[in-house]
Amino acid sequence: MKSTPEIGKVLLIVAAVALTLVGSTPSARATLMMQGDNPHGPLDLACNSCHSTEGWDRLLPVLRFNHDAETRFPLEGQHKQVACAVCHTSLVFRDAGTDCFSCHVDIHEGQFGASCEECHSPRAWLDESRFRQIHQETRFPLLGVHASLDCQACHSTGHYRDLSTECITCHLDTYQETTTPDHSAAGFSTDCRECHSLATAGAGADRWTGPGVQFEHTPSFPLIQGHGNADCAMCHEPGIPYAATPTDCYSCHQADFESTGDPDHSGPAFDTNCEVCHTIQGWSPAQFLNHDATGFPLDGAHTLVDCNSCHTSGYTGTPDHCYGCHRVDYESVPDPDHTAAGFDQDCTECHTTLAWQPAWFDHIGTDFIMDGAHVALTCIDCHSAGYNNTSPQCFACHEQDYVGVQDPIHTPVSFDEQCTLCHTTSAWSPSSFNHDQQTSYTLTGTHQTLECSLCHIAGNYVGTPDDCWSCHETQYRETDDPDHEAQQFPFDCTLCHSTITWEDASFDHDQTNFPLTGAHRQLDCVLCHSAGYTGTPTDCYACHQADYEGTDDPDHVEEGFPFDCSVCHNTSDWEDASFDHDQTQFPLTGAHRQLDCVLCHSAAYTGTPTDCYSCHQADYEGTDDPDHSALGYSHDCTVCHTTDDWDVDDFDHATYTDWPLTGAHLGLDCNLCHATVYSGTPTDCWSCHEDDYNSVADPNHSSAGFGQNCTECHTTADWTAPLFDHGDTGWPLTGSHVGLDCALCHSQGYTNTPADCFFCHETEYNSATNPNHLSAGFPLTCESCHNTVTWDDATFNHDQQWFPIYSGEHRNEWDSCSDCHPNPNNFLVFTCISCHEHRREEMDDEHEDVNGYVYESSACYECHPDGEADRRLMKRLRTDSPTER
Q1: Max CA-CA distance within the chain?
Q2: What is the pLDDT of residues 11-51, one digit of tens each?
């Protein structure tokens, strides 16, 4: 500390300086302040911003100094309430640091680094909400009661890093002190979460033992029903680890097992597996739950029987067949006498477990199904000789019925002894014989109503013929219209007759190889079959030779018409002849369909040529617009003409040439392109449009040296609407370039036009003043900052390409490029210390332990390429011993 006289002397000097500054010019004032003639050190600030003229130690009631705007440390939160001297312990204001450690002691001993703002803020030293949020992102989020604890409750030693997250770390004492149950003796897991919850209600010790404590018993032995209310000590005996406790019932219930007398469990029959009869709901009442597993499922009346009724001699060796218990019932039955009849001892064939009586025998299991009148019979009716080897055949019981039948007598005609052919089990009579299913001769029509004896003469049902002629020979021989015998009709009556009636005969001629159609259907058979019904020819000429030879329009014989009349005639009418020319090699289309045949067939109907020129030679040679002969047109008239009209030509340029017509070409007269001939006509645009090419003045195609491939700019739709795709040149037009006139860039022609921006924008480059491109030596690659949309809207990404000046520490710390680039002709030259030079002493102190530190701009950039303090790099550069510093 300075003495009082010295302080007074300093104050007088300061006052004198202050008075001088008040009366001096701003420049003089700034000079004095920069000379350091004030106790505050270099300070670009007028004294009257804080001091008054009343005295050096009398500050203004309201300071004109704005700490937020004029320093790099805006005052926020609690910092606004702190007196200046608390932070500025020295009168040299710039000596005060801006980091937290300058004022605040790190009680955490560096565990959290230098980033105090992660947990603390100017608003409050302990920002509870921020601290809680940060802790939730650690390995141990604060849940349940932990969320309300004070930090020191867990971090009592002051350590916050790399602590264990296991409960036992904090709760070991509680674990060891717990006696109900004794966790240590029982060998309980040290993972407290198996029984205790973070969300357990209560406070203090209640958190450990409160109602939220619940142990989830192992899945191999869940605590449910009767076990759910048991105290742990009932099963877990003292001194035995909980994990060693047996899980079988007998271990806990041995006394219950041995004390049970009804039935006596201690006998050899009972298994010590209590679950066979008992459940965890309670020891009693007990019930044998799975009798099905014994091989004898209980059902019906058996479910109500007392166990001792069957297990009279114990529970082992009990028979599982009915006869073992029901032998007395079997031997005492008189109707029928089971023993005498030799009934099978398998009672289930007739009896069920519902009751011994009534009994029911399911005849389905035998070879004889009971149905019809058999159902009402008593067993003795069929089993009079016993129940074994009873025949299932009807004849065995119904032989007398078979012998006694008189209409028809079954025995003489040897009716089959298979009664089911005619009879059913419903009743012996009436009987019914299904002729359709039981013979190979189906009865149809009148046959269905005939008496059997009409076909089965003399009662003989064996060997009866199934052909019609055997029964209808008389009708065959007596028929005279037509005379079947004289005409040698076949004996197959079904060709003309049906089983409905003999008289109504009908022959389906369509089933022959000559179906009747048209007028043939109404003809009398003898007109065609005059020589008989066999060998009748099927060709038309055989019947219509006279018609063929008598026709003179046209004369069939003279013209050599074929004998196949069906080529022109049909069976409906001979006069109505029609020839389908489409079935020949020359189908008739268009105007050809209305022509008279002789126009084309003037010589004959055979060998007539099918090419157009043969008939239309006169038309070809007589056409002069264009002159087909002179121009050497092809003789294939179909190239231009159709059969609809000779005068209407329709030449498909796309099909017959390799130059399809599109756009305006479609409506042109052929002679415009084919002025001389039609062969060898060039297909390039320039051959026809040379005059158009040479006459264009804007732009002048010839002087510009445009190519003669017109399709690069023009289409066939419109010559005057050019369409040039600049993208095909390798320099696509974008932004404002799209609407520019071509001549603006191609002022010197359209070939070898440079593709760099500077070629066109040299004037803009040279005239730019903010910044001055020319003096600054900016590169000529305009696209680095400019785009094609607008020249003035330039963007240069200083942050990504070089050094962040729009973000980070240097944001809003500069006014113009020259602040950092003192040489306007070379922007590669930069300076850091021009802005930081007044802090050199502070920078030297800050870097005193950095190996190789130099107060130069290039060195600043080497360690701080992004303008931020890289602590990892600084740590690496720092040396470990004072000697190396």
Answers
A1: 176
A2: 333 333 333 333 333 333 333 344 446 788 877 778 888 88
**Is the separation of the CB atoms in 324 and 309 below 8 Å?**
no
Which of 58, 80, 98 corresponds to the end of one domain? 98
pLDDT digits (tens, 9 = 90+) for 581-607: 888 888 999 889 888 887 888 777 777
CA distances (Å), 20 to each of 8, 48, 65, 152, in order?
Answer: 18, 12, 20, 58
Q: What is the CA radius of gyration of the chain?
A: 63
Instruction: For residue range 677-690, list pLDDT tens digits in order.
Output: 777 788 888 888 88
Distance (Å, rounded) from C-alpha 486 to C-alpha 479?
10
Same domain, 94 and 188: no
For the cut 80, the answer to whether the pLDDT of residue 81 exceeds it is yes
Helix H or strand E encompassing 153: helix 151-154
Average pLDDT, integer, range 787-815: 82
Taking residues 124-152, report their average pLDDT. 78
* Sign of the dihedral through C-alpha 697, 701, 702, 705: positive
Determine the pLDDT at residue 14. Answer: 36
Residues 340 and 211 in one domain: no
> How many structural domains is the chain composed of?
6
Which residues neighbour 302 within 8 Å (Cβ) at sequence distance 6 or greater? 353
Helix axes 4-23, 26-34, angle to 10 degrees: 150
Pairing of strands 55-59, 51-52: antiparallel
Q: Are residues 262 and 346 in the same domain?
A: no
Residue 517's alpha-carbon distances to 512, 541, 781, in angstroms, are 13, 16, 96
Tell me whether residue 661 is in a domain: yes
Domain boundary among 284, 301, 318: 301
Residue 697 burial by CB count (10 A; 0-12/13-18/19+): exposed, middle or buried? exposed
Whether residue 538 lies inside any domain: the answer is no
Phi, psi of 597 (to 5 degrees): -55, -40
Single out the residue of 479, 486, 476, 575 nearest to residue 529, CA to CA.
486
| CB environment 481-510: b (16+ within 10 A), e (fewer) | eeebeeeebeeebeebbeeeebeeeeeeee
Position 22 scores a pLDDT of: 35
Predicted confidence at residue 25, as pLDDT, reads 35
Dump pLDDT digits (tens) for 432-490. 888 888 788 899 989 988 888 788 876 677 778 888 888 888 888 888 877 888 877 88
Q: Is the pTM of this model over 0.90?
A: no
Residue 799 carries which side chain, given as an amino acid letter? D
Is 844 a domain residue? yes
Interatomic CA distance for residues 750 and 326, integer angstroms: 121
Quick check: 601 and 595 in contact, CB under 8 A?
A: no
Residue 287 sits in the same domain as residue 222:
yes
Query: Are 94 and 10 found together in one domain?
Result: yes
Residues 200 and 318 in one domain: no
Residue 75's alpha-carbon distances to 71, 166, 580, 809, 817, in angstroms, are 10, 42, 111, 17, 30
- The reply to whether 179 and 264 lie within a common domain is yes
Q: Residue 335 pLDDT more than 60?
A: yes
588 within some domain: no
- Rounded distance between C-alpha atoms, residue 59 and residue 48, angstroms: 9
% pLDDT > 90, the chain: 0
Alpha-carbon distances, residue 439 vs 433, 463, 545 (angstroms) = 10, 12, 53
Asked, as a colleague might, if the bond just before 822 is cis with ω within 30 of 0, I would say: no
Classify the C-alpha dihedral 452-453-457-458 as positive or negative.
positive
Residue 112 to residues 105, 115, 118, 120, 125, Cα–Cα distance (Å) = 13, 7, 9, 12, 15
- The DSSP output letter for 193 is G
Check whether residue 227 and residue 281 sit in a common domain: yes
Q: Cα separation of 583 and 795, whole Å?
A: 82
Structural domain for 335, as ranges: 302-361
pLDDT of residue 12: 35
